[in-house]
Amino acid sequence: MKRASHQTAARVTIEDVARAAGVSTGTVSRVLNRRAGVKAATRHAVLEAVSRLEYRPDAAARELSLRHPKRIGFHVAPSSTRFSPFYTLFAQHLSAALQESGLRLETVPSRPDGLPARSADAFVLVGLHDDDARIGYLHAQGIPVVLAGHAEGERWTRADDVDGGRQAALHLLRLGHTELLHVTGDLGGQAAFDRFRAFRGALQEAGVALPDARVLDGGFTTLGAYRAVRRALEGGVTFTGVFAASDEMACGVIAALEDAGLRVPGDVSVVGFDDLPEFGDGLTTVRQDVAKVAATAAALLKESLRGEPPRSEVIPVQLVVRGTTARRR
Amino acid sequence: MKRASHQTAARVTIEDVARAAGVSTGTVSRVLNRRAGVKAATRHAVLEAVSRLEYRPDAAARELSLRHPKRIGFHVAPSSTRFSPFYTLFAQHLSAALQESGLRLETVPSRPDGLPARSADAFVLVGLHDDDARIGYLHAQGIPVVLAGHAEGERWTRADDVDGGRQAALHLLRLGHTELLHVTGDLGGQAAFDRFRAFRGALQEAGVALPDARVLDGGFTTLGAYRAVRRALEGGVTFTGVFAASDEMACGVIAALEDAGLRVPGDVSVVGFDDLPEFGDGLTTVRQDVAKVAATAAALLKESLRGEPPRSEVIPVQLVVRGTTARRR
DNA sequence: CTGAAAGCGCTTACAG
DNA sequence: CTGAAAGCGCTTACAG
């Protein structure tokens, strides 16, 4: 039975936990901060009390006693569109998750050479590409790094772009589409590339070709996708199904189709990626759990600050079928 | 002479200020929080010490002693595009400014009826339109409100959209353009409407007409602007100068012009609004000082929390002439 | 009008 | 391995 947690309800403090577990507050603190040298039995007692009382440390108190707040740098590759809805959303979730632990997220701009212009106690890197120079640069300074992407031996998390691309392909194939078009983001970036590769791979397995003329660069923008599709249409390219590597691009694709007199999903089926409600609410798309990716990144960040060994985690995606895909006529 | 302020430099505390001013820390706190009942002379001594030592209160300590952090709700009208770069940037600046004072900015979603879905200790409302229902709704609950926009008798701040629209017009007129096109955002919103009205007003004063056919709704999106202009061009509308109510739309305008074989600024001059570096870096535009608007909003928010009387402030804008405008040939 | 002191909720040497 | 206590930088009754 849960008490209604009013804004004004007396909050559970570390002292409550200590009392409940029959130990001192210092010990509770040690357990919570994973310091070595606590007997397993006491640790368990503490952890049990923590979860029973639903204790959540006060960020301000923590920050104050730590002397200075840890600052987490948020850096997006200059080749990526800094204001993409996905990054914005990701940063919002991440900031909220970090705030709970007394960590501050700071957006750091790029230097002319593309590296972060300021320092921080740890970094989250987004808009990752292979051989991303930022990783080595930060490592050289001994600054912990967490990637929204992936790289061997690093700390990273990402949505399952590979499975997402595959699911989009399978869905379209199941509906009988074989003349497929793919609108990509920046293929130099991991997200776009992984989606593309998995999409094409799944088609190949099914014996369906994806000629170069049907792979269009939409640059992860609505207008980019619109122009690319419109040009393709004018150039005589034909297709009955489209996979766009983001919902914004799916929007552009649909607009281009409509402007050309084609109907969605009557004439052409369209699948997006991300599942951002503000982009076409009837869109069939691959949902990625931004909040979960952000929460995982926050956890990795905290581990990195404690010097724990690197690990990585792939967050599952899910195909959400709505109104922009239909069986081929 | 300023000391290099290392991350590790001993920070100036309220105690240092108290000592320097020859008073107790309690008194310094009273002055800083504008509590009544401090002798003018002592107040001045404290303020002098504060600025001489460049004292900046520690947000965490403040939050801790205040018992619970104040939460500021950030709400954008559902009719506005939540992920517009401008809002994102504004929220970033605002969040940073508030954090310094131990205030937390929380993005709050909309209910189906468009009102904020959660409560907070105070609200910042963006995407304002006339007779905005959110204002009365929050007032009725006694929640302080600050507007990024304007309304009689309220606390508000905004960039000088009116002067911005005028400047865009004057610039184009000075270059000899008289066949002008305006691409608007959502005219139901104040920002778009004020810019439009001022632009048209300035033209009228100069005896230059702006027929309805040359006022296009771009919906504050790149693609919206692109399609609107392209359609106008196909419909035979002619013009040599364009004012787009945002840089994103200016981008779309330029793309549409180029796709139609027109050159910028050779054939057509284009002026944007905002001055976001990521949108066309050679763009002639009206710069608004987002950081300043955000800082002002933060100040108003703090005043509202202290129950001070409402006031409002217009932040000046500035025309930045770059490569997308030229003299009419 | 202002000072001395308690308290906010944590962390971490310091003992033991 | 763990407790008692000091300290982080503020605010605010409580006295005077």
From TrEMBL, chains A, B:
The keyword Cytoplasm does not apply. The keyword DNA damage does not apply. Pfam families: LacI (PF00356), Peripla_BP_3 (PF13377). PROSITE patterns: HTH_LACI_1, HTH_LACI_2, IQ. Keywords: DNA-binding, Transcription, Transcription regulation. Residues 12-66 form the HTH lacI-type domain. It comes from the Bacteria. GO terms for molecular function: DNA-binding transcription factor activity; transcription cis-regulatory region binding. InterPro entries: HTH_LacI, LacI/GalR-like_sensor, Lambda_DNA-bd_dom_sf, Peripla_BP_I. SMART domains: HTH_LACI (SM00354). PANTHER family: HTH-TYPE TRANSCRIPTIONAL REGULATOR GALS, LACI-RELATED TRANSCRIPTIONAL REPRESSOR. This is Transcriptional regulator, LacI family. It comes from Truepera radiovictrix (strain DSM 17093 / CIP 108686 / LMG 22925 / RQ-24). The lineage of its organism: Bacteria, Thermotogati, Deinococcota, Deinococci, Trueperales.
